[in-house]
Amino acid sequence: MEKKAKIIATLGPSIYSESKLRQLVRLGADAFRINFSHETKNITSIVKRIRKIEKGANKNISLIADLQGVKLRIGQFKRGAQKIKFKHKFTFDTKTELGDQNRVCFPYPKILQKLKKGNKILIDDGKFTFIVVGKKGTSIKTICKSQNCLMRNNKSVHIPNFDIAFNKLTLKDKKDIKTAVKLGCNWIALSYLQNEKLILEARKLIKKDVGIISKIENKHALKNINKIIKATDSIMIARGDLAIDIGHSEVPKVQLSLIKKCSQFSKSVIVATQMLESMIENNTATRAEINDIATAIFQGADTVMLSAEAAIGKFPKQAVSTMAETILSTEKYKREHIEDFKNSIFSENDPVKSILRSVKNIAYNQNVKAIIVFSNSGKSAKLVSAMRPAAKILTISPNINVCRQVSLLWGVQSKNSRDANDWKDMMSISREIIKKLKFIKKNDFVIITAGLPFGKAGMTNMIRLYRVN
What is the spatial distance between Cα 428 and Cα 359, in angstroms, rounded to a whole number? Predict the structure, then answer.
């Protein structure tokens, strides 16, 4: 049985080799995330490996460029990581030298100048706390208030109750978007956005066959969530920074609310951060982590993500395998109790959505084995995926980048094929594909959707119920 929900694995030293990447794809990874907050010097050769594996696996793989945004980060240490003792005095400054046990670079002079005695500085998604005890210009003196503090290169910084306006892409983000386009990335993930303005700016810098993922990680984004969902292609619930900003106990209900809202507006949603955190060091997950993954799937997430577990973890293969097994088990229960999990979708004033809702209703018939979606832009594939039909979804597109993009969506398999010229040609392409699908037998039904006239994006207006003969 193939899983419907998808898995993102973050690229890093633990999985850079071709053999490791191939194993992760075989075990269930559907997409790889490039974290532009870290070093990407050799990323071109790694992307080539992924595309080579893609051909061998006969499976389209999504590439996600995750931009750094204005998310604050410390600099680097001489040893790559540095232990800081509890109650040890530690300095954050703007010096570019590598850090040690006494100091590290924090390259934001304007922020350092505004910090006051008593302010908290939280490092690495809030794991470690430092309290400001003094300052001199852009040099901030703090006391470490955390036991077992191990700070690593480029880790995130959060300063509670300290607002920073962020409505424009940084110069680094613009540069990284250009790199991502050259690499052939299929999604751009925008970090720390507060409203829809970054989305609209990023749209102008990318091609139409590249999707935008908006990371929700602060209270400003939650306040503007309807505008963000309308403007974006996908939402990522980035629970690390979000928990720090709104409080850990608020995150579960926000996660459920965002997943429901994305479902209603037919937008895909990714749940991320610390899903299998213990597997960075251990080869088995905790029961709480398994439950966390299952909860996201029960709630209706399209995709779940591995961060450090894959990038720098000791057991990336086991992490992907654990995630895939949990998804399969949870989805089996959902199929057996399908009435408890039917979603509602807003289709008012959108005739395409109304047409595709009827696809979902037809697909509940157990004799319907697949839905073939002809889609130039990927929009129809996204809408069919959002309907959560029982039948398998196969998207056909003449654009390989669209095929790769939609492979991140719930339940979608994609195939790069020439576009149909007319109705007769569409049926010819469909029959060729159906012959190669082993799970479809004689007298089974397949739903075929497309837009007339052919070759024009965003015009899905036709459904055919085809009986295999």
Answer: 21
How many angstroms from the chain centroid is the CA of residue 70?
Answer: 19
Q: pTM for this structure?
A: 0.87
CB 321 within 8 A of CB 25: no
Return the closest-CA partner of residue 225 out of 204, 250, 255, 202: 255
Spell out the residues 6+ positions from residue 380 whose beta carbon is closer than 8 angstroms to its own: 352, 356, 373, 374, 395, 449, 451, 460
Report phi then psi at 135, rounded to 5.
Answer: -155, 155
Over residues 242-259, the pLDDT tens digits come to 998 899 999 999 999 999
CA-nearest of 350, 353, 348, 395 to 376 is: 395
**DSSP code for 420:** P
What's the CA gap between 258 and 301, in Å, rounded? 10
Angstrom CA distances, 141 to 6, 102, 287, 309, stand at: 44, 10, 40, 33
At the topology level of CATH, where does 6-69+167-335 sit?
TIM Barrel (3.20.20)
3-state DSSP assignment of residue 226? helix
| Lookup result for tokens 């959707």 | 449
The Cα 155–Cα 211 span in angstroms is 27
- The amino acid present at 330, given as its one-letter code, is T
- Asked whether 266 and 382 are in contact (CB, 8 A), the reply is yes
What residues does each domain of the chain span? 6-69+167-335, 81-158, 351-467
Please write the tens of the pLDDT for every residue from 271-299: 999 999 999 999 999 999 999 999 999 99
Whether residue 453 has pLDDT greater than 90:
no
* Contact of 67 with 35, CB cutoff 8 Å: no
- Which CATH number is associated with domain 81-158? 2.40.33.10
CATH number of 351-467: 3.40.1380.20
Give the mean model confidence (pLDDT) for residues 116-124. Answer: 93
